[in-house]
Design a protein that fits this description.
This protein has twelve helices and eight strands. By secondary structure, the protein is of the alpha/beta class. The chain has one domain: Aldolase class I (TIM Barrel), CATH 3.20.20. An eight-stranded parallel β-sheet has the order 1-8-7-6-5-4-3-2. The longest helix is centred in the C-terminal third of the chain and has 16 residues. One of its GO terms (molecular function) is N-acetylneuraminate lyase activity. It is an enzyme of class 4 (lyase). It comes from Algoriphagus sediminis. Pfam families: DHDPS.
Length: 296
Amino acid sequence: MNWYGVFPAVTTKFHPDGSLDMDLFFKNLDFQLDSGVHGIILGGTLGESSALTTEEKITLTRETVKHVNGKVPVILNIAEGATQEALFWAAKAEELGASGLMILPPMRYAADAREVVTYFKTVANATSLPIMIYNNPIDYKTLVTVEMFEELAECENIQAIKESTRDISNVTRMINRFGDRYKILCGVDTLAMEELLMGSCGWVAGLVCAFPKETVTIFNLVQEGKIEEAKKIYRWFLPLLELDIHPKLVQYIKLAEHHCGVGSEHVRAPRLALIGEERERIERVITDGISKRPKL
């Protein structure tokens, strides 16, 4: 598994009646692949995983693996409240041909450090798939500390970290402690270039769903040392990237996909499509960004 590059956390596409829209999903998936992304992540927050049925998740995983056909790795996110459910999805991901897993700490129950470490080790020891730990204490209220990663280092297939603590210095802290033992991927759009400059080797991205070419170009320019060129695109991108750090990031990013012609704004309840002043405000950000889109 090469934990390097831009990994879109793709949205799940729905018809107006709420059923899966696989044709539109594949249209966006092809847009991502044609733009040069390095992997695909299914079933994250943007994928509205908590509102999907087991069969829908299986369908999405199976059909994505088939459609991608080995061009890039397909990663399945696991965000469960029970260890047995996490084990089910780890086994199912392997059965369906996924390339790896992204795993959050236990959901809903506020597990302590011993419980979180045991949870991750239990899943890791039950699968041969490579694993990225999703460390997001802001949204999910559990911090995976440096000391916890010290304990997890014995599991060879725990290989990467989606760094979403929103503390840029944590990239340096982890590198100082572990060297290249863990691959670090930025998980917060508004800090992506900063973390790439500090040593992250990847970007688990949100606005990439609507703007993949710009996202991949920023990543590539940073890798090539063309920092000033990357800054210009990143500064244009920032107002759009800020849509990723709001509780309604799903609605915001889906509206951006709609305006870019690669998605729809249909969401699954309890989420609702945007209306009124909020919709007008977010559309202004999106349409202003599109009108000023840089030439790459």
